[in-house]
Amino acid sequence: MRVLQAPLDEAAARSLHAGDAVLLSGVIVTARDKAHLRALSMASAGEEVPELQGATVYHCGPIVQERNGYEVIAAGPTTSARMNMMGPRAVRELGIKAVIGKGGMSKETHDAMKERGCVYLAATGGAAVTLAEGVKRVLSRSWEDLGMAESVWELEVKDFGPLVVAMDSHGRSLYEETEARVNERMRLRAEGKL
Predict the structure, then answer these.
(1) Catalytic residue among 17, 36, 110, 170
(2) Residue 45: is its pLDDT beyond 90?
């Protein structure tokens, strides 16, 4: 199990390989559809996007309770494929070196990850409360007008995970490999060889 400091830099991202297990400590930032759209719109207009620039981005719409500050109650991953249209630009233009989510992302996003030194870390779906235990405190909230789930939450985490490197910067994708194995088994079964 690798324990890494977030946000990841390119060297840390490139040191990871598909199948590695990771725990993160440091700072991660949540962002979903609307946050990605706003960030890329700002970048296109030549504006800086400090909320996401160089961040370790977690595809998550946390449930946050407000009492003497904010407390994250649940922090499960959302389906990352929802961000596929924006993924390549987010990696290239925002300097993202790690994305946390579930289900993987498109080949185009993976190509950008290989090019820029970024990894995809798979979080376990259905483990929202367990993952929230790794969130030590909320550092800030940006873009409140987007609502709780779509706001950008900057979170201090300790031993957040475990996460699995599902898409690395060297071209391996556990999703693609699994799909190829399933397709091969289906072919063999159809041919009566299994």
Answers:
(1) 36
(2) yes
Q: Retrieve residue 4's tokens.
A: 């890494």
Q: Supply the pLDDT for residue 188.
A: 87
Does residue 36 carry a catalytic annotation? Answer: yes
Q: What angle do CA 93, 150, 8 make, to 5 degrees?
A: 45
Domains of the chain: 2-190 (3.20.130.10)
Q: Cα-Cα-Cα-Cα dihedral of 56, 27, 137, 52, to 10°? A: -50
Structure token digits, residue 13 = 């991202």
- CA 165 – CA 172 distance, rounded (Å): 10
Burial tier of 126 (Cβ tally within 10 Å: 0-12, 13-18, 19+) = exposed
3-state secondary structure of 115: helix
What would the mean pLDDT of 71-81 be, rounded to a whole number?
A: 96
> Can you give the length of the chain in residues?
194
